[in-house]
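Example record used in the benchmark description.
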Amino acid sequence: MSILIALIPAIAWGSSGIVTNKMGGSAGQGTLGMTFGALIFGLGTMLFYVIPTAGLSFALDRRIWVVGFVSGLFWAVGTAGQFVGFKKLGVSVGNPLSTAGQIVTNALMAAAVLGEWTTGKMWLFGSLAILAVMVGAVLTALPDSKSDVRELNPEYNLKTGLLAVAISTAGFMMYFVFPNLLAKVGYISAVIKAAPHDTGLYYMTSIVGPQSIGQVLGALIIVVFFMKERKTMFQAATWRNIVTGLVWATGNIFMFISAANPAIGQAVAATLSQMGIIVGTFGGIYILGEKKTNRQMVFIVIGAVLVLLGGILIAELKNI
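Model output (structure tokens):
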């Protein structure tokens, strides 16, 4: 059951790129609309689950609010970068690159900083898994040398797209690891992190409300001062992308619940959450109609399999 719960984010997040594409709008509108959806979900979680179940001591804990709020700011950086990457590279290219970056950085952070890789075997097979993910991501993103990608995507810009994905990866890495990192260094007490019954459920669900406020504030700053979309940020496309935020937020809460569960852990939860690469990559091709040649499709299939195998191997490291 724990593994099934940990796979929910893969479905939700894998489809979010497709949903936002269908909702339309600019990268700024997609980012802002998504945060509004996350805010609705986050405040709903706090009012209808955290307060009735965990109590006001969790819902209003100052340190939990700090962790959640800062995590939300990191997320805003990651999401803005991801939307720009999708616009510049296409969903079927940007999604696997973003996914691979998140798998690699989160696995390494969980292993080296949180200490979840404890044996030589885990480091050996974990490193092989990371290599498989990296090679797979490169294969899925290979362009066709005989076609002009700008004809298919007028916004295509390889350099800008890759830079955006790199920034996005750093933001998402910190968003993922920050709650467990603050618990690791003692800012969040072991008692709070473990409740109830060593599941971490109360801590991770309590984060979601303040996190959503950090997401909205971070998105507003990025959209106004960096994306320069002040005049268009409250148009119809922004409100349509609230749907994207609700889809994403569903995956978010289950990812943090899984990361806090000792039976799963940060590395496994973050890795499984990124298995939505299948949804995102093939959805971009078959649902959004992003054109690929037969040669590219062969590489995409091989690359997706490598990313999946690498992700599964990381998820099974504790059993090696």
